[in-house]
């Protein structure tokens, strides 16, 4: 792992040297922006390098969704025969050229970077020997500058669980560190949840119980576990995580619109509550989403009232017209049939007299 630590350190030092020429040396808003931006651009560098793999990840997820109907057929066909099912599934992956591990590859590749940054920031502490300071390509002035770097007056090397002795050595306030850490953790939880929600909202819930359970864990479980991570991670690491989530949201939005998910019968395309009047798609048919609860009662009452109002508005004239038509049809004199010669009553009377 020494090579990872060295690489992470060199990327941070490069971006620090770049921003040191742009932003002032003094703290602005209690922040040493050279080091904060060095961490932010460390994330950007990693994401740019991994972007082609991220696109492959989305394509792999699309391919997995496309073969879900065939997967379901295999599960039903080989129900109870686990060994045969696994062989058929692997054969299906080969035929469709699908690699299920590709969906997790970007996350796995980011783990060494995350661990490397965590180690480097924990390594930055006062009282370190000169030899230790110069590890991973750091100079002594750079090391001391990073130890003293702040984000809104909270050192980036401090963590929520730092004790009084540790905070005293870096001249930090316990309240400030806890407030900044808590706010960053809140942002980390929110962005983690939104990242998963964006994906599920676009692709829908999987109807397979196991896959659906994984989706729920990704949506609710991972944000919950990040709550505890803020207790142990330095502020600089939490800043890295928040920045990474924000970039993931942007990249994911772009990729999901460029490579939309395929229509699949195994996913529910309405995973979240629909707005009023929206149309829900289920099983290939489209139907208008019906409100429930008090909204449903109100809608039915409103519909009945409108129908009665329309009946009153149209019923009166219609009934009168119908009554007049019935009276004309049932009276003693009926209208002649179309094309018949008109009958003159006077001539008819004279003819009768002459014949009589």
Brief rundown of the structure:
By secondary structure, the protein is mainly alpha-helical.
Molecular structure report:
68% of the residues lie in helices and 4% in strands. It has helices at residues 2-20, 33-66, 68-77, 82-96, 105-123, 130-133, 140-147, 164-169, 174-203, 209-232, 235-258, 294-330, 345-355, and strands at residues 150-151, 154-155, 205-206, 267-268, 279-282, 285-288. Strand 1 (150-151) and strand 2 form a beta hairpin. The chain is elongated.
Q: Mind sketching the topology for me?
A:
Elements (H helix, E strand, L loop, with lengths): L1 H19 L12 H34 L1 H10 L4 H15 L8 H19 L6 H4 L6 H8 L2 E2 L2 E2 L8 H6 L4 H30 L1 E2 L2 H24 L2 H24 L8 E2 L10 E4 L2 E4 L5 H37 L14 H11 L1
Antiparallel strand pairs: 1-2, 3-4, 5-6
Features of the shown structure:
356 residues; mainly alpha; two-stranded antiparallel ribbon; 6 strands; 68% helix; elongated
What portion of residues is helical? Answer: 55-70%
> Could you say which structural class the secondary elements and strand pairing correspond to?
mainly alpha
**Mean pLDDT score, rounded?**
74
The largest pleated sheet is described as: 2 strands, antiparallel
Tally of individual helices? 13
Percent in strands: under 5%
Strand order of the largest sheet: 1-2
Number of beta strands: 6
- Rg to the nearest angstrom? 37 Å
């Amino acid at each position: 792992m020494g090579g990872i630590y060295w690489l992470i350190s060199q990327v941070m030092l490069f971006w620090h040297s770049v921003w040191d020429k742009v932003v002032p040396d003094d703290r602005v808003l209690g922040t040493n922006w050279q080091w904060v931006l060095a961490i932010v651009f460390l994330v950007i560098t990693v994401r740019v390098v991994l972007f082609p793999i991220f696109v492959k990840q989305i394509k792999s997820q699309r391919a997995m969704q496309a073969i879900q109907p065939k997967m379901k057929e295999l599960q039903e066909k080989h129900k109870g025969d686990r060994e045969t099912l696994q062989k058929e599934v692997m054969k299906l992956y080969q035929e469709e050229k699908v690699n299920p591990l590709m969906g997790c590859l970007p996350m796995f590749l980011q783990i060494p970077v995350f661990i490397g940054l965590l180690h480097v920031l924990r390594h930055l502490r006062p009282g370190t020997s000169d030899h230790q300071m110069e590890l991973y390509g750091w100079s002594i002035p750079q090391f001391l500058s990073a130890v003293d770097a702040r984000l809104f007056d909270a050192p980036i090397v401090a963590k929520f669980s730092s004790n009084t002795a540790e905070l005293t050595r870096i001249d930090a306030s316990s309240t400030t560190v806890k407030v900044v850490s808590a706010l960053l953790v809140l942002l980390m939880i929110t962005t983690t949840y939104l990242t998963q929600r964006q994906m599920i909202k676009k692709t829908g819930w999987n109807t397979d119980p196991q896959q659906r359970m994984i989706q729920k864990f990704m949506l609710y479980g991972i944000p919950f576990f990040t709550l505890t991570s803020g207790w142990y991670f330095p502020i600089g690491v939490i800043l890295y995580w928040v920045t990474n989530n924000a970039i993931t949201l942007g990249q994911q939005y772009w990729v999901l619109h460029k490579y939309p998910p395929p229509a699949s019968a195994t996913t529910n395309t309405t995973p979240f509550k629909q707005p009023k009047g929206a149309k829900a798609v289920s099983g290939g048919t489209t139907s208008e989403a019906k409100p429930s609860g008090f909204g449903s009662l109100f809608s039915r009452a409103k519909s009945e009232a409108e129908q009665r109002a329309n009946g009153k508005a149209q019923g009166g004239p219609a009934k009168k017209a119908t009554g007049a038509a019935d009276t004309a049809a049932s009276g003693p004199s009926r209208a002649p049939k179309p094309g018949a010669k008109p009958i003159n009553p006077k001539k008819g009377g004279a003819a009768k007299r002459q014949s009589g």
